[in-house]
From TrEMBL:
PANTHER family assigned: PTHR45033, ZINC-TYPE ALCOHOL DEHYDROGENASE-LIKE PROTEIN C1773.06C
Domain Enoyl reductase (ER): 10-333
Protein name: NAD(P)-dependent alcohol dehydrogenase
InterPro entries, sorted: ADH-like_C, ADH-like_N, ER, GroES-like_sf, NAD(P)-bd_dom_sf, Zinc_ADH-like
Length: 336
């Protein structure tokens, strides 16, 4: 089969080649990949800044895929040939709290990912793709949508009338605006682009803050919330901005620490965190059970993924370059 193979770190070392088509073993599905979507994790793996010691070479990258089951291994009962399915990043995290070794069983590293004509997904890990979505749309769900859902619902327990803040206008943040708005919450968005802030308001955000022109954006959040701060903040930036996130969140509020776009380490000011009694929770996607509940919600509220651009399979590198420059919503690669 054709596959993109990461032979060493760096985008120049991501090369289109051929590798044997995998065969499903007991309990496994062979999926003809229709589309994949890119996340910052995928870029960080290629760049060598995401658990580089765990990345096998060559690696078929990209965790988030949607496609059609074309063969099944012995004992498969959850899916049939012809069913459309999604991959699920943490392939062994099915329900409840995560176990200690979930990152060892992630697609796109260390397990082979979906940037190939075919991939193997265990039947227990696979999730039925929404019938009302194309493969390109469904491929955006496994990390971006599910991280937003888990942050807002399972962790954040956001309620109608409460306020959530989302950073930026990438995949997770756009889904968070759509889902939180459908849940009846008020959303404040930050971005460095006024055009993106106008666009995100059209998706339901009630206010937008340009953090370039308003570097002390936490002060603006307090003004917008009558001095209280937001109930829940989804932090995708990481880095030193976490201190502003604490300041922008209400006393006893919650921060979902999702990303590390501006840095993996930070000098955290503990006294504001302690005095405001803030809950800071690292979020690494969610279990399969949450994915299935989310799909029901997306269908019920007719929430459609926002896709910035779809690239053909042969232009995977260009898709990575687009992601690196920034995207409004999701960057997708059509495979099948």
């Amino acid at each position: 089969m054709k596959a993109w193979l990461l032979k060493d770190f760096g985008l120049d070392n991501l090369q289109l080649g051929e590798t044997p088509t995998p065969q499903p073993r007991a309990g496994e599905l062979l999926v003809k990949v229709g589309a994949v979507s890119l996340n910052f994790r995928d870029k960080a793996i290629v760049d060598g800044i995401y658990e580089p010691h765990k990345v096998p070479k060559p690696l078929i990258p990209v965790s988030d895929a949607a496609g059609t089951v074309v063969a099944v291994g012995e004992g498969v009962t959850r899916f049939n040939v012809g069913d459309r399915v999604n991959s699920h990043l943490y392939s062994r995290w099915l329900d409840g709290e995560p176990g200690p070794h979930e990152p060892d069983y992630c697609f796109g590293s260390p397990l082979p990912g979906g940037l190939a004509e075919y991939m193997i997904i265990h039947q227990d890990s696979a999730v039925a793709a929404p019938a009302n979505m194309s493969d390109e749309e469904a491929a955006t769900l496994p990390i971006a949508a599910l991280t937003a859902w888990y942050s807002l619902v399972d962790f954040g327990q956001i309620l109608p009338g409460q306020t959530a803040l989302v950073q930026g206008t990438g995949g997770v943040s756009i889904f968070a605006v759509q889902i939180a708005t459908a849940l009846g919450a008020k959303v404040i968005a930050t971005s460095s682009s006024d055009n993106n802030l106008h666009a995100v308001k059209r998706l339901g955000a009630v206010a937008g803050i340009n953090y370039r022109t308003t570097p002390d954006w936490a002060d603006e959040v307090l003004k917008l919330t009558a001095g209280k701060g937001v109930d829940l903040l989804l932090d995708v930036a990481g880095g030193s901005g976490i201190n502003q996130s604490v300041a922008a969140t209400k006393a006893s509020g919650r921060i979902a620490q999702i990303g590390f776009l501006t840095g993996q380490t930070v000098a955290l000011n503990l006294m504001p965190l302690i005095f405001r009694q803030t809950t800071l929770r690292g979020i690494a996607v969610a279990p399969r059970s949450s994915f299935e509940r989310m799909n029901e919600f997306l269908n019920q509220h007719d929430i459609r993924p926002v896709i910035d651009q779809v690239y053909p399979f042969e232009q995977a590198r260009e898709a990575y370059e687009h992601l690196a420059k920034g995207a409004f919503g999701k960057v997708v690669i059509k495979v099948g």
